[in-house]
Amino acid sequence: MRVLQVMLGDEHGGAETHFINVVEGLQHGGIEQRVVVRDNQARISLLRDAGIPTIELSKADVSSSTATAILRKELENFKPDIVQTWMYQATRAMPSGDFVHVGWLRGYQNLKEYRRCDYLVGMTTGIVSSVTEQRWPAERIYHIRPFADIRTASPAPRAEFGTPEGVPLLVALGRLHWHKGYDTLLMALALIPNAYLWIAGDGEILADLQKFATEINVIDRVRFLGWQEDNARLYAAADVIVLPSRYEPFGLVMPEAWAHKKPLVATKAAGPRATAQHEVDALLVAIDDVDGLASNIKRLLTDGELRQRLIQQGYTHYLQDYTLQSTVNQYKQFYAEVLQKGQVANKSVSASFLDKVKSLFGK
User: Quick one: 2-147+323-361 is in which CATH superfamily?
Assistant: First the structure.
């Protein structure tokens, strides 16, 4: 089985990190892969260190017809049985061919760019439901849970980011976008006088957040870390992980917090609401509820019994649903199933493709 993986998304982001983790896991799981990605040296180094042949596209290539031409050549050279395109940029650029085309959805999206796909993958049951509500056939959408990156590391030294020893440390991770609710978190920080906050991520509203933090007099207790390639050291350093999103289809921060045995406070956005349980493995608060966010963070900082209960239940949830092996097994089963089914009936299926499937499965 040969799988071509294509990700042409942003330079940094949670979906891009998840893509790297899945592809590395599948490589260790024995799937023969080739990858096409937008140029990012850190990402490319990770893939090549894992032994995965990688083709790089520039930002200019991605935004032009050059991407389709490069992908067409790669299809001719590699002759994949399955092509998985991650998000709409890759899906839109992918030409047709003798392969099963799988599209990966980042969240709740319009399916216009995905109509040429044979099958779709969604990370949550909510995403799957939204796809079928758009009249996509239920037998062509699959739910595959992500896994938490559990690479261990020593805690990032507080001095590295100008943070005193002994103060409560809150950590939030994700792209700097209005959807992520960081302004709400900054207002909550103003109600927790002794705490410091690390925000790991990059994005278009960095200057706005810095200005807002200055206006509400918390800038001296906030550290904007930029994009971090090694989040394990940030999890290890944190006292509380915070996910303050207004819009969050899933939120990989949740299982990662559980995997790293850190207590979690999250908003009741779609992903956390469907994945975590209040007072069981996380504390959940209403979206944009500054007082509720602050008070629940304070609870975790002062109630040791509550912290330990959430940590224990969260780690159990991680072991049950979000390990690397669980996700790799799901993908291997999924790939075998869709390859046996082949391309969908309303698409042209060549004799060479049918012969390939028969040879793979001995039929």
Answer: Glycogen Phosphorylase B; (3.40.50.2000)
